[in-house]
Amino acid sequence: MSTLQVDQERDAPALALAWVPAWIRAELAPFPGRVEALWRFLLSTTLVVVISMALQVPFLPLSLIIVFFTAQENTVLTRLSGIVMVIGTTIAVISGLLLLKFTINYPLLRILAACAMAFCGMYFMRVSKLGAIGYLLALFVFYVQSFVDQAIGPEALVRALLWVWVAITYPIVLTITVNLLFLPSRPGRLLTDEMRRQVDHVLAQLEAHRSQTAARPHSAESVARSALVLHRHLAFAAQDDAAWRSNRAYHLARVAAIDRLHIAASQLSRLPLTALSPVQAEQVLALQSHCRGLRTSLVDGTPFTCDPNLAGTRPVAGPFDTVLREMGHALQAIGEAETLPAPSAQKREGLVAADAFSNAAYGRFALKTVLAATLCYVFYTAVQWPGIHTAMLTCFILALPSLGATSHKGLTRVVGCALGSVVALAAAVFIMPHLDTITGLLAITLPVVAIGAWIAAGSPRSNYIGVQFVFAFALSQLGRFGPTTDLTEIRDRMIGILIGVGVSIAISTALWPEREGDALKRLLARLLRSVAELARAGHDAPGTPDASELRTRRDAIDNARLRGWSLLAQNREMQARVALEPGWQYAHDTVTLEITTALAQTQEILFAVNWLHIQVQDAGSYLPQATADALRALREHAAVRLDRIANRFEYPDEPAPHASDVIPALPRSLVDAGAASTGWLADILQAARVLDERIAQLDRRLSAPVH
Predict the structure, then answer these.
(1) Separation of alpha carbons 649 and 656, rounded Å
(2) How does DSSP classify residue 592?
(3) How far is residue 30's CA from residue 197's CA, in Å, rounded to a whole number?
(4) Cα 177–Cα 182–Cα 187 angle in degrees, nearest 5
(5) With bands split at pLDDT 50, 70 and 90, how would you rate the model's confidence at 7?
(6) DSSP code of 386?
């Protein structure tokens, strides 16, 4: 072995962990609405601690965790999640009482009935949008078993179950009230804030090119997330407010236009900084003025007016001019949004999956979850260690459709519990012996809650760490109505979680593992097909289009672009989950090599197709009909190639024909004319060549033999 190989092997662990500090900084970075969410968490938890301590409502740690589960990113989701949780908790408590009434004296029958009810609940969780009700039922009927094992009397047992209902229900009502009244995160306001943030990014890119100073580039991932966030906020705003719902066409057009503006800014961030001509500088200043006006209209809620000649009519002279014109068209689209007709009603999806009773995966999922929980219950009962009953609950908490998602949540649960346990241990040893008032208790509790709330208000990649951080501390220090220095709760819960995570992952891996490696390839195929749809979108019809036809084409391109960004984000998320699947290196040995490379190249193809669309749209009336027909054939040929490449991922066992190049689809005379030109035709052909090269790279990569 060479010295270089030895050095590479020695440095491999350090290189593998080099991304951790940057990841932590990104996860903890502030974003619009995070500070407000922190204050709402703090107010809700303070009220819960004071009320539970003053009125001696038991199960305070459970009440605190319910606050975190109820509070969501906006008031609509918070209200919906709270209602579903109240219904689910009520059904679960009634079911638990009925279970005990008829099986309290028959342990085997009680366990079998609990397993049957939990199976039905987990099955319902997979097949319905109201699956949280089934999840709560399954979790509660097994949680009841830990009460029965304490050998308390029937009356005390019933009272304990009813107190559980109180400890869950009143924090839900309290959290919904706080989120509606105190710094409410209304979806409409969140949408406005996000649009304003994206306009600020556009202004930053324009200023960077005007002043010749470097600006932070926009990655494809950030562009995709930004587009999805806009449409997500708009969907909830339409549910929350009748005014938003009645003006949905205007808001949808405005969101699509700002999405176009942000994508154009991303393209601008990729261009080198060059000295601007007087005409270009004037155009940049005009765009900056309009963007500031748009930002003011968003803040004040006033109509936005745009100069109808902002995009200009002169032929573009290069990529920079093309991006500026695209920004002008996007701003003009925002100004025209108020004249749009009302959209047609969208078809609602059913509450139950179409294959609810035909897909065997749902039953297998429920069976695996119940089996894992039963094994943990039998284990801690056999060793007479009730303190680790968290192992049984962990099996339900980690019950997620895919093995990668289960592993990810298990990892975050362990990390959050470990961090919370360390803080609880330090508090129990150094602080709790000196506290004797609720003021002191709040003084030590609220900073812990603030840290956990900040993490919990973050991205789905890490927010569960914050929830577990607070819960681990609460179980240790807030389980009694007074200071405690008992450390057994910390030890037992950590051991129980480790056992539960191990059993859950082992069962999920050994029995019908739902790996996402193959699903990732199918999802990548869908992404390639969506890029092909984008290439075909807005195909020109013969003749000069009127305003209505131009708007229809633009809407088709915007919708196809949004589907592409959405699938790109889904591919990135699924890829991260697949990387956490146990044994993925052996079951899917091409995930990190083939799929990662193909996904990165598909992302570049998405940008290239979008850039070609921008070039063709900006050429506008300068395109002769013969040239427009040739470019339509070019995009169709590119779409065919992308469909063929998608078939390789979707149907890997079938031979796929090798697609020809894109550029020969253009007439030779047009290629020669473009080669001799330095204007818009040369730019369009250059965009076509870039698209051809991107597709060819992916084609060659997939056609290369695997060694």
Answers:
(1) 10
(2) I
(3) 13
(4) 85
(5) very low
(6) G
Q: Which long-range contacts (CB under 8 A, 24 or more apart) does 353-359 make?
A: 353/126, 353/127, 353/128, 356/127, 356/128
Q: Among 636, 610, 686, 631, which residue's Cα sits nearest to residue 330?
A: 610
Within a 10 A sphere around the Cβ of 176, how many other Cβ atoms? 21
* CB within 8 Å of 480: residues ≥ 6 apart: none
3-state secondary structure of 56: coil
Tokens 């107010």 belong to 43
Q: Which residues lie below 8 Å from residue 651, measured CB to CB, with a gap of 6+? A: none
C-alpha separations of 443 from 42, 242, 479 in Å: 12, 43, 17
Unique residue bearing structure tokens 């037992």 = 492
Tell me the three state secondary structure of residue 79.
Answer: helix
Extract the tokens encoding 113.
Answer: 């009935």
At residue 540, the pLDDT reads: 54
Find the mean pLDDT for residues 8-20. Answer: 50
Q: Are 261 and 335 in contact (CB under 8 A)?
A: no
- Distance CA(537)–CA(148), nearest Å, equals 63
CA 648 from centre of chain: 27
Claim: this prediction has a pTM higher than 0.90: no
Average pLDDT over residues 373-386: 92
Cβ atoms 154, 42 nearer than 8 A: no
Q: Where are the alpha helices (DSSP H) in 17-74?
A: 20-28, 34-55, 60-70
Inter-axis angle of helices 463-477 and 488-510, to 10 degrees? 140
In this structure, the chain runs to a length of: 707
Residues 6+ apart with CB under 8 A from 436: 483
With residues binned 3-state (H G I as helix, E B as strand, rest as coil), the percentages for the chain, rounded to 5, are 75, 0, 25
Looking at residue 659, the DSSP 8-state letter turns out to be: P
Residues 116 and 611: their CA atoms lie apart, in Å, by 56
For 567-615, how does the pLDDT look when each residue is reduced to its tens digit (9 = 90+)?
Answer: 887 887 777 777 666 654 444 444 555 677 788 888 888 888 887 877 7
pLDDT one-digit tens code per residue, 205-223: 888 888 888 777 777 677 7
Top-ranked range on mean pLDDT: pick from 20-34, 161-175, 250-264, 672-686: 161-175
Which residues neighbour 216 within 8 Å (Cβ) at sequence distance 6 or greater?
204, 269
Q: What is the dihedral of CA 255, 261, 267, 273, to 10 degrees?
A: -150
**314, 328 contact by CB (below 8 A):** no
- Mean pLDDT, residues 369-382: 93
Helices (H), 149-219: 154-181, 187-211
User: In the chain, what's the furthest Cα-to-Cα distance?
Assistant: 94
Going from the C-alpha of 334 to that of each of 158, 192, 615, the distances in angstroms are 61, 14, 20
Q: Determine the residue type at 646.
A: A
Q: How far apart, in Å, are the Cα atoms of 98 and each of 104, 137, 243, 260, 667?
A: 10, 13, 46, 57, 78
